[in-house]
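In the design runs reported in the main text, the only information available to the sequence generator was the tokenized backbone. The following block is the verbatim input for one such run; it is reproduced so that readers can re-run the procedure and compare outputs position by position.
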């Protein structure tokens, strides 16, 4: 099976160094019995903000609304991050290369949304493991985001060839912001094409921003840009105040009023 480094569209570094774990001990420990976070503005220079807590739906939603996301490796405590600068993409400003447009116009792929969420997130983890890079998408994360999906907040886009899943992505939607988490592909351009389909859907449904979290060359080529965390948080505050398009998404879904 062909595998492609396109996994890097929404890609965090493959492993966390021990010094980050040590530094986390001087930061904020989260109480499992109370859902609260310190201000993301006080995160350290790497974006590390807090340690501990859990991955229940309410805590994850509270974190995303504040511009905070979990990211940690197998065997580590849960680490919470808010990097500065932040990479974002305005959906209607996406740049699609001629080559990718030609590929999509050939009809090499078909696309669905929210039909095999667990397969997509598991594939995102397995492709990275296949490259022996390690993954932050540990079993605990897969379970947590599957719960978010069932609650109507986490979504997937799937790219198919015949009846074979060959690429996809997943993320979280709150208000008019989509928080991209990870992508995978087993066929060249499959995840890129899925991302283009996602952005078209987001434009159609009034989304203002895609949070790409950390910078990758692939996303920069799509038109993503870094902005200061302070600016990102101001934009995010407006986005999450908008109604959330919950439930199962469909590519043909009509626009919603916001």
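Verbatim output:
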């Amino acid at each position: 099976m062909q595998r492609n480094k396109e996994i890097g569209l929404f890609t965090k570094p493959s492993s966390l160094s021990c010094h980050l774990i040590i530094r986390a001990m001087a930061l904020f420990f989260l109480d499992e019995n109370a859902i609260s976070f310190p201000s993301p503005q006080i995160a350290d220079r790497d974006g590390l903000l807090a340690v501990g807590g859990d991955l229940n739906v309410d805590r994850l939603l509270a974190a995303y609304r504040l511009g905070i996301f979990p990211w940690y490796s197998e065997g580590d405590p849960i680490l919470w991050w808010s990097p500065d600068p932040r990479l974002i993409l305005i959906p209607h400003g996406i740049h699609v290369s001629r080559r990718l447009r030609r590929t999509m116009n050939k009809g090499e792929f078909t696309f669905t949304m929210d039909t095999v969420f667990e397969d997509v997130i598991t594939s995102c983890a397995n492709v990275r493991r296949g490259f022996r890079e390690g993954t932050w998408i540990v079993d605990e994360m897969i379970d947590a985001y599957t719960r978010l999906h069932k609650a109507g907040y986490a979504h997937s886009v799937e790219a198919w060839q015949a009846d074979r899943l060959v690429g996809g992505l997943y993320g979280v939607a709150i208000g008019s912001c989509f928080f991209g988490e990870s992508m995978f592909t087993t066929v060249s351009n499959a995840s890129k094409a899925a991302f283009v389909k996602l952005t078209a859907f987001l434009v159609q449904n009034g989304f203002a921003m895609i949070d790409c979290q950390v910078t990758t060359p692939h996303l920069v080529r799509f038109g993503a840009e870094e902005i200061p965390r302070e600016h990102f948080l101001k934009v995010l505050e407006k986005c999450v105040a908008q109604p959330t398009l919950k439930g199962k998404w469909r590519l043909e879904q009509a626009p919603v009023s916001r």
